[in-house]
Amino acid sequence: MKSNKKQPSIFEVFEQFNTEERCISHFERIRWPHGLRCIRCDSERVMQFDSHGKTGKVRHLYECVDCRYQYSVTTGTIFHDSHLPLTKWFLAIYMICSAKKGVSAAQLKRELKTSYETAWYMAHRIRTAMSEDVHFCEKFSGIVEADETYVGGKGKGPRGRSTASKVPVIAVRERNIRQSPYAGCRERLGERAC
Ligand SMILES: [Zn+2]
User: How far is the CA of 30 from the centre of ligand 1 (A)?
Assistant: First the structure.
């Protein structure tokens, strides 16, 4: 565990992640710390390009030179298929990770200007990712969880710091999300009791 307990403020997080490009490059570094790789065949020969959709929205994509698979930084992760900007996801992660007593879906909805269903969905996915990776908050928003009892403790066993950096735990599969123990929790999504 880090001895430095200084946590980032919401302003610092907002400054760091106030554009999609900044969020994407941060997420790229988390997902592929040793350089881009194909998520299907693990090849290192990956090209980057931008695709312009019908709405004019730019999508930052990758294509594997070997298997031709095309994907984005969010493909196969908790952010997949959400249509929400990563800037909102990063703020939601900060809010949930920094709230000692949990964050309700209603609060997320209000702060991030989303529908209640979207807020609930985001919180549900973030909580699932947190339960699978003890370093999730630290990776995304720089928040170090000080509570030793949280998600089985810090730095012990196979989830220690040395292995955590190698495991793409943010690639939460849909199967895991559906079977999440948080599935029945509709209120106070950030609470550990959920
Ligand atoms: Zn490939």
Answer: 19
Query: For 113-132, how does the pLDDT look when each residue is reduced to its tens digit (9 = 90+)?
Result: 999 999 999 999 999 999 99
Rounded to two decimals, what is the model's pTM?
A: 0.72
Residue 29: which of 175, 191, 165 has the closest Cα? 165
For 3, residues 6+ apart whose C-beta sits below 8 A from its C-beta are none
The residue segments making up the domain with residue 153 are: 10-19+75-178
Domains: count for the chain: 1
Q: How far is the CA of 33 from the centre of ligand 1 (A)?
A: 18
Distance 18 CA to ligand 1 centre (A): 31
pLDDT one-digit tens code per residue, 46-101: 999 999 878 888 889 999 999 999 999 999 999 988 889 999 999 999 999 998 88
Residue 27 burial class via C-beta count within 10 angstroms: exposed 0-12, middle 13-18, buried 19 and up: buried
58 alpha carbon to ligand 1 midpoint, in Å? 23
Q: How far apart are CA 77 and CA 125, in angstroms?
A: 10
Closest CA to 90 of 23, 144, 29, 135: 23
82 occurs within a structural domain? yes
